[in-house]
Design a protein that fits this description.
The protein is α+β, with helices and mostly antiparallel strands. The protein is built from nine helices and 15 strands. The strands form four sheets. Strands 9, 10, 11, 12, 13, 14 and 15 form a seven-stranded mixed β-sheet that branches. InterPro entries: PDZ_sf, T2SS_GspC_N, T2SS_protein-GspC. Keywords: Cell inner membrane, Cell membrane, Membrane, Protein transport, Transmembrane, Transmembrane helix, Transport.
């Protein structure tokens, strides 16, 4: 009879237990367990791609000795380029100037002379003599021309390419017509010259010969009818050394030219008659050479300076000259000055 009594007592005890609270507790436990299972599943899928990524197995993630939390190697994550690579932005550049993009300039400038390095269009040893607002000065590559917004971009044998705003313009050497044909070397200039018409003569004129008469196309015939005064300074070794040293300095820094001599084209009725010479900031060498203020240079070593093609050819040979035979008009009289270089 004990068994029925025990069952009755257990039944009475079960009725006293709060079943609603137990059900809620069980429900909460089931939810937490389900969340735990879901988290395990998600982390499993996340870990698999990471293990097959670019992070090498030879470079394990570092762990802290004070906790089990893994510390992530930031440099490795950055190297993955998860958001792609940023392409470097290139600064906008001007197109290389050509005849099609460098028309004749309308700026009020005069290109009176060029000392160009034919081996490079942007050589630091090239210099242009440009007159602006009545003032003549020398300019190298990249220099801004006084009184304008233009700067020198290239110095060629017969022209200067100017950088003006976002474009380019061409400034031709005075006496040369603008053309789309740009001579790239002295040989191209010589191809345009009638060699038979140019009497270059010997490099060192014999001491008993007369001066070679320059082409007198635009000169004064009466002046050349007279025997020229002859000044032969080749035996002046001190002068020759000074000229040689100064020439080497000019090749290194052509901007020093204005310190020695100033050269200005002289025209009458639009025709080029020669180049007026005047001393620069230091007149010492100018005077020692036998030159005088306002001498009109018309010929050098047989090259007619009133013919721009011949003058350009002379410019291309300046570095090779060992002597200079200069004919100038002084008070309407020809004077021949011979210098050793």
């Amino acid at each position: 009879m004990e068994s029925p009594r025990l069952l009755e007592q257990f039944s009475q005890l079960a009725q006293k237990i709060p079943q609603n609270k137990i059900a809620k507790i069980i429900t909460v436990l089931l939810v937490l367990y389900s969340a735990y299972l879901a988290a395990l599943t998600i982390w499993k899928f996340i870990d698999e791609p990471a293990s097959s990524g670019r992070i090498s197995a030879a470079q394990p993630l570092t762990t802290s000795s004070s906790s089990n939390t893994s510390s992530i190697n930031i440099s490795q994550l950055v190297s993955l380029n998860l958001f792609g690579k940023e392409e470097a932005k290139k600064a906008p550049t001007k197109p290389k100037p050509t005849t099609s993009v460098a028309p004749k300039t309308r700026l009020n400038l005069t290109l009176t002379g060029i000392v160009a390095d034919s081996s490079s269009e942007v050589s630091e040893t090239s210099v242009a003599i440009i007159e602006s607002s009545g003032s003549q000065d020398t300019y190298g590559i990249g220099q801004k021309i006084e009184g304008t917004s233009a700067s020198v971009s290239q110095i060629l044998l017969d022209r200067v390419i100017l950088s003006v705003g976002v474009g380019y313009e061409t400034l031709m050497l005075e006496g040369i017509e603008y053309s789309t044909s740009i001579p790239g070397s002295a040989s191209e200039l010589n191809d345009n010259i009638d060699v038979d018409a140019v009497d270059v003569g010997p490099t060192r004129p014999p001491r008993n010969t007369k001066a070679r008469k320059p082409n007198n196309k635009f000169g004064k015939p009466a002046a050349y009818d007279r025997e020229p005064e002859r000044i032969d300074n080749r035996d002046d070794t001190e002068l020759a050394d000074s000229l040689r040293e100064q020439r080497e300095q000019l090749f290194e820094d052509p901007k020093q030219l204005m310190d020695i001599i100033k050269i200005t084209p002289h025209r009458e009725k639009g025709e080029l008659l020669g180049y007026k010479l005047s001393p620069g900031n230091d007149p010492t060498l100018f005077n020692q050479a036998g030159l005088k203020q306002n001498d009109l240079a018309v010929n050098i070593n047989g090259y007619d300076l009133t013919d721009m093609q011949q003058a350009l050819s002379l410019m291309s040979e300046l570095k090779e000259l060992t002597e200079a035979d200069i004919t100038v008009l002084r008070d309407d009289s020809p004077v021949q000055i011979i210098l050793a270089l």
